[in-house]
Write a structure and sequence with these properties.
six-stranded mixed β-sheet, 13 strands, binds adenosine-5'-diphosphate, binds magnesium ion
């Protein structure tokens, strides 16, 4: 059997069990970051991500500046997902000899832009030659109040499920790029920038970390159709998602209308959003959502609820009838 048949997550499960015995006070494989206790009150959170040319990006369609920005964004987003503050990062690059120095300078300008924005510091890495493709591996370290860390494993039946931003803009932008459609008007430009220069929800994550009602959290990197499964697996719960309540930006709606795309499918399956997906008790939702809106100029979007049925994801259309699941991103 080859790994395509196994799939990404069965593949990880296959070896992770063999490494499950780890020292006390540490949380390993299974969440957006590993958690390592630092002292009696605080913890380090650590994450690593790999970007490969022609798998995660195409140099013809993303500028080196945006690639620098986006490569760090993916890591900072995993730190945001824990409700932590990013502090340091390490960068490993494998580069073919024909990469232009000007390309590399622009890559680092993009990387510096985001690292300066969040006050995170590059502390090391590794550089090697590659035969053909560019690969970029970034590991990042954040810090958090241990009691406030949000995990994937703590969703409770009865919770409501929310996201911190509109869904599908990034995939909308990618579709425009791949289909070579014009990116001239403001709608198309917004989708393009959401795809090429996503903003990690660090402040949003810290805001939510302070709220005890928020139970589980992760970032949207593969698209909610896939990411929801990660919370279900870790928390051993089920979920019901209301397809019609998925938040879609007016820019996505207008671009979808123009090209006849299904905006709901795009919102459900679109990855690289880097907003946060969370479950929380509904008790104080109104108050918390109002505070969130005052601070971040958009509401917390409620998209469904957590149910006790173990690992069963049901997609519901308005009116309550169940509908088919949208396709999820697959690595293999
Ligand atoms: P994310 O999308 O937030 O980076 P994933 O859901 O893809 O995380 O990964 C699930 C978990 O599996 C994470 O805890 C990650 O650290 C772990 N993981 C993925 N690949 C490997 C690997 N090759 N070795 C060890 N752990 C891995
Ligand atoms: Mg993640």
């Amino acid at each position: 059997m080859n790994i395509k048949k196994l799939g990404e997550f069965a593949l990880i499960n296959r070896f992770s069990k063999k490494f499950a015995k780890i020292p006390k006070g540490i949380t390993g494989i299974g969440d957006d970051c590993a958690i390592i206790s630092k002292d009696s009150k605080t913890s380090w959170v650590v994450t690593t991500d790999l970007l490969i040319e022609d798998v995660h990006f195409i140099t013809k369609t993303i500028s080196p500046f945006d690639l620098g920005y986006k490569s760090l964004s993916a890591n900072l987003s995993d730190i945001a997902a824990m409700g932590a503050t990013p502090k340091y990062f390490f960068l490993s690059m494998s580069l073919p000899s024909n990469v232009k120095v000007s390309w590399l300078d622009d890559y680092f300008r993009g990387l510096k832009k985001l690292s300066d924005k969040h006050n995170v510091f590059l502390l090391g890495g590794d550089t090697t030659k590659s035969k053909k493709r560019i690969s970029i591996g970034i590991s990042a370290i954040g810090e958090a109040d241990t009691k406030k860390i949000k995990k994937r494993s703590t969703a409770k039946a009865g919770d409501i499920i929310c996201v911190t931003d509109y869904l599908g803009d990034s995939l909308g932008g990618l579709n425009l790029i791949l289909k070579k459609l014009p990116i001239r008007n403001s709608d198309a430009k917004r989708l393009y920038s959401r795809h090429c220069r996503p903003e990690p929800n660090i402040k949003e994550g810290r805001f939510l970390a302070d709220i005890d009602d928020v139970h589980a959290m992760m970032d949207v990197s593969d698209g909610i159709a896939s990411d929801l499964n990660r919370i279900m697996e870790q928390s051993k719960v089920g979920m019901e998602i209301d397809m019609d309540s998925l938040p879609k930006s007016k820019e996505l709606m207008s671009v979808c209308k123009k090209y006849g795309w299904n905006s709901t499918k795009i919102a459900a399956s679109g990855g690289e959003e880097y907003c946060l997906l969370l479950t929380m008790s509904g008790r104080n939702f109104k108050r918390i959502s109002t505070q969130f809106k005052r601070k971040f100029k958009r509401p917390l979007f409620k998209i469904g609820k957590v149910v006790s049925a173990n690992r069963k994801l049901v997609w519901i259309k308005s009116g309550g009838s169940a509908t088919g699941a949208p396709s999820a991103f697959k690595h293999f």
